[in-house]
Amino acid sequence: SAEHPVLEVRQIEVLYGQAILAVQEVSLTVGEGQIVALLGANGAGKSTTLKAISALVGAERGQVTAGQILYQGRDITHAAPDQLVREGLVQVLEGRHCFSHLTVEENLLTGGFVHRPSRAALRADLERIYHYFPRLQERRRTAAGYTSGGEQQMVAIGRALMARPRLVLLDEPSMGLAPKVVDEIFEIVGRLNAEQGVSFLVAEQNANVALRHAHHACVLENGRLAAEGSAQALAARDDIHELYLGAA
Ligand code: ATP
């Protein structure tokens, strides 16, 4: 509802196995219609935070051992991942994970069945995705394994959009891509946000590009929140880049 942020993470702690404390006392908020960047170096805990939210840490022997996660005002700390997808909370995993033997269009369709749509509705969802990613329309009959890294990232985002999400958790979309392609992807994310009202929580090591497109940003260091603020304010702080973000 309107008075709740889309997502509220309160003081969570995430433990892998019995002893690896990957995230401690992390709090963050994604307001309705916001793009929030989750920044930090390799191993800072970005992926773990996203997977804690989407309930996928469980698949990696991790668990949320303290704190609370609220989605649209409801406690989802111990919810099931498939239920969250049906409710519009969808993660795009790091590394894209396309089905390489399926065509681009078949990959997109795999994301479309959560709401048991009619054929016409599926078609309409596909057309909406092709509107934002014309490149995917051109490549729709190509096996995903034969498309470029940028196109595979677009497939992964497009597949998530087929579930008609309200909040997309996007893990390291820039990974391994040329700067021009990264900009293209972030621009499309910005348009989806502005035109479709989809909120995004984007984990990125590439702070510069993420801060250019996000409204708000949080910085993780060694599993803890090291800084946060408006993207504009953080981008203006030189110390942030030097202390937490390396050369990115
Ligand atoms: P990257 O971008 O490289 O994934 P990250 O900021 O997303 O970095 P995480 O992947 O969340 O960082 O890792 C945070 C910490 O948790 C690291 O110390 C990592 O070694 C540890 N970790 C991550 N996944 C597991 C796992 N499945 N089992 C045990 N430890 C893990």
TrEMBL record:
PROSITE patterns per UniProt: ABC_TRANSPORTER_2
CDD domains: ABC_TM1139_LivF_branched
Annotated GO biological process: L-amino acid transport
GO molecular function: ATP binding; ATP hydrolysis activity; branched-chain amino acid transmembrane transporter activity
Pfam families according to UniProt: ABC_tran
Gene3D superfamilies: P-loop containing nucleotide triphosphate hydrolases (3.40.50.300)
Positions of the ABC transporter domain: 7-247
InterPro entries registered for this protein in UniProt: AAA+_ATPase (IPR003593), ABC_transporter-like_ATP-bd (IPR003439), BCAA_Transport_ATP-bd_LivF (IPR052156), P-loop_NTPase (IPR027417)
Assigned keywords, A-Z: Amino-acid transport, ATP-binding, Cell membrane, Membrane, Nucleotide-binding, Transport
Family designation: Belongs to the ABC transporter superfamily.
Protein name per its UniProtKB record: ABC transporter ATP-binding protein
Organism listed in the record: Ideonella dechloratans
Record lineage: Bacteria, Pseudomonadati, Pseudomonadota, Betaproteobacteria, Burkholderiales
